Fold these 2 entries.
Entry 1:
Amino acid sequence: MDDSVRLRLAGFPRERTWLLPALLAAQETEGWLSSEALTAVAEHVRVPPSETCAIATDYATFRRVKPGRHLVRVCAGLSCRLAGAADHLRALEDRLGIARGSTTPDGRVTLEEAECLSVCSLAPVLEVDGASHGRVTSVAVERLPMWFRTRRPWQGDVEASDLPQIRALGRTAQERLAYLRSHAEARIRQRPEFRFLVQGGSCGEALGAGEMLKALRLLAAMRGLDAEVLDGACHGMCSAGIVVEVQRAGWPRLTFTHLTKDIVPDLLSALVGSAPPLTRFTGVAWNDEGWRGLPPASRHPFFAGQRRLIMERCGHLDPDSLDDALLSGGYSALASVLDRQAPEDVVEQVKASGPLALSAAEWEVCRNASAAPRYFVANAEEGAPGLFADRHLMEGDPHRVLEG
Ligand code: FES
C-alpha cells in the first residue's frame, strides 16, 4: 500500500460512522482493498481490524483481490442475457484466454460477470473500467481495447463554501421565490439562440452521449451558431437514445431520438435552414400540432398514454440549472409550505399519506434530533435489478428530489 491511501483517509473524521466511506475511498484509490489498506482504515476510524475485514468481505462492492489494470464486466442480468450478453462473455473468454472471474497472466485485464448494471433498456451491456456501454455488438467486443481507459479519479468532496451563494429579498418565502424567478428570467433572456440538451445520465453515458456532446459543440462552433450544448438528462426513452432536445425562443421544444454523432451535421443544417421539414429525423414536438413534420408528443407511442407528474421536467431542463427549475415551477410548493404550514403539520400530513409514512417518521426523528448540522441523504438504490426510477429522477430533475 502506498501513501495515497493514507492521504485519502486523512480527509475523513476519525469516527466509526465513516467506516464505509473510508473503505470506499481506499478501494477507489488502489482499485482494491489490500490487508494493509484494511488495517489503515481500521486504525483511522478507530474500529477493530476484524470489523473492517467483516464488512469488506460481506459487501459485494468491495474487492479483496487485486484486479487487472483494466476491469471488464459483462452484465448477466435477464435483459442482457436475452440480448446476447452470454455470447459476448464467451467471446471475451476465448479472446483473452481466461475464464470469467480471472485475470490475464500479464495482469492487464480482469473479466467478470456482473449483476444487472441498471441500464437494462440498452442491453446487452458491458462495463469497462467503470464506464457502461450499451447495445454492445460482437464487432465492438472484438475491439474491446478502444474502451480501456484510466480509472476515474476520486470525485473531490464538495464543500458548502464551493456552492454559489444565493440571496433573495422578500418578507415571505413566496416573495423571495418571486425575486429569484425575476432574476432567472433576466438571465434567460441573455441565453444563446439555440439550446441543445444531450441525453446525459447513466443511459446516455452508456450510449456515447459524451461523444455526441463534443460533436455538437464542435460543429455548432464551426458553423458560428449562437448555441449552448449542455449535458442534459433522459426523458425516459432510454432505449431511443441518443436523445437530444432542442430549445429555441418561439419554437416548441423539439426532442430528437435515435441520433448518432454522424447525423449531427444534417441535423444542424435542417434546424438553421429555411424551415425544411424535419421528417427524416425521428422525435416529437412538445406542442399540440407538431412541428415541421415532427408529430406532437401526444401522438408518440411512448408519450401518448402518459400523464407525467414526478418526471414531467426530466429531459427538458438542465439538471444543474437552478434557473431552469425556478422557471418551470420548481420550489413553488416548498415556498407555499414554508409560508402557510407549521413544520409539525407538514410531518403529520406526510404521515397521513400512507405509503410515505416511513419516510415521514424518519423526518420526525431528524427534526427531533439535537445534533447539528443535520444532513440530507438521498438513497437512490432501489435494491432490485431493472429498477432505477429514483436514480433517473435524481439525474434528470434533482430539484424535485429536494423539494419532495
Ligand atoms: S440486465 Fe443488463 S443492465 Fe439490467
Entry 2:
Amino acid sequence: MVLKSQHIRQVPKFKKGEQLLQNQQLPIQLLVDGQGTVFVNLNEIKPFSIILSTDTNPKSTGHGFELTIDESSAIFYQWDNGDRKKISCDLNVESALDKDNNCIYWLSLNTHNPERNLRYGKGEMRFKTQLTKVSILDQDEFKWIHNIKYVIFLGSINQESVQIWRDPVTIEPAIIVISNDEITMEFVANYEFTISANLTPECQKLYANIAGKEFILDTDDFPNFSEAIKRSINNPNGWCYKKLKEKSEEFGKKDEAATYLRITLGINQGDSPGVPYVMEIWPGGHYSPIHNHARANAIIRVLHGEIVVSLYSMLSLVATHQKPFSEQRLKQGEITWIAPELNQTHKLYNPNGKDSPCITIQCYLYSDKDNSHYEYFDYINNDGTEICQFDPVSDMDFLEFKNLMKEEWHNLHNI
Ligand SMILES: [Fe+2]
C-alpha cells in the first residue's frame, strides 16, 4: 500500500481571532467526488456533526450522510432533499464523545464496490482504529453517493486541525518493510509486507541508509560486539549495567525495566528530533513508555534479538487509548517504519530474558513540509499521570561506545 499523505487538503487557516461559530456551516470540497477521509478535533468536548453531501446545504436540497457524535452515541443519518432519517446508532461508550480533548475523529467514505461504506474511528486514520462501519448496499437507491462533494461541520471544531484526505480508509498498512527481492505475489495480495518505495520519501531515504547487508553489529574488526554488550548489561561493573541503573527514573517514578540505552551515530544536523541515527539497547524484559515521534518519519531495524512493537491510536491519558490496536514481534533483520500520520505512537518491549538483549537502529527525519521541527518525543510517564516531553539525548557516541565495549571485552578475557 502506498502511503497517501501526499494527497491531503488542509483547510486554509482563518485570520487571527476568527473562529468558527457554534453550529456554523463551513463547506469544504473533497479532493475526489464520492470518496475521501475527513479528520478533525474539537475546541471543546461538545456534540458535533460531520455531513458529507452532494449539496452545500443538505438541510434543504441534495443527498448526503451525517455522523453525529454526542455524550452517549455515534449516530449516522441519511439526508434526502431536506429529510433526515437515522440509519445507524452506535451506543458503545468508546464511540461517543471522547474524554480527551485532543482526540482526533475521522470519517471515511468509500463508494467503490464491493466495499461501499462509511467508516468512523478515533486517532490515526486506519482500518484498525475503526469504531463503526455502515455499509451502503442498494446501488440504485444510492446512485448519488458518487456525487458527494462537500464536507460540512456542525459544532465547535478546531479549524486548524481539519484535514481532508483523498482516499478512504480501506486496508491496514503493513508494518514490516522487506526488500524488492523478497516481495511475492501472495504478499501483495494479502497486504502482508510492504517495500520501501511505498513509504514516504523521507522513510525511503532512511531505509536506503540502514537496510544494507553490511549494516550489522558484529563486523570483522569486532566480531563479539553484540556479546560484549550483553556482558556489559549483566556485569555490575559494566558501563551498560551502571548506565541503565542511573536511568531508572528517566520516565517518572523508579522503574528499572523502563530503561534502554541510546547510542548515537553522528551529530544532530537540524533535520530530525535529536541525532538522526540512534542505536538502542534493550535488555531482556525492558521497555519504553508509550510515546510518539514529533511527527517525524522513522525507520527501525532490529540488529540483534527481538522487539515487540505495540501501536496505539493516540497518545492519551485516557485508559481506553492505552490499549494497543496492534502488536508486532520483530526479529533480527526485520524493519518497520513510522510516518507523520501513521505508527506515530508506540511502545517497544524486549519480550525475552536477561541473556537476550535486543539492539535496534532507529533513524529519524522530519518531512520536508514540516516547518515546526518539534524536538521532543512526548511520552506517558511511569506513573501514568502525565504526558511529558522526552529530549532525545545521547548516552554515548557510537564510536566511543564501540571502543569502550572492546575494552570491557578485552579486560574480561585478559587479552
Ligand atoms: Fe519510539
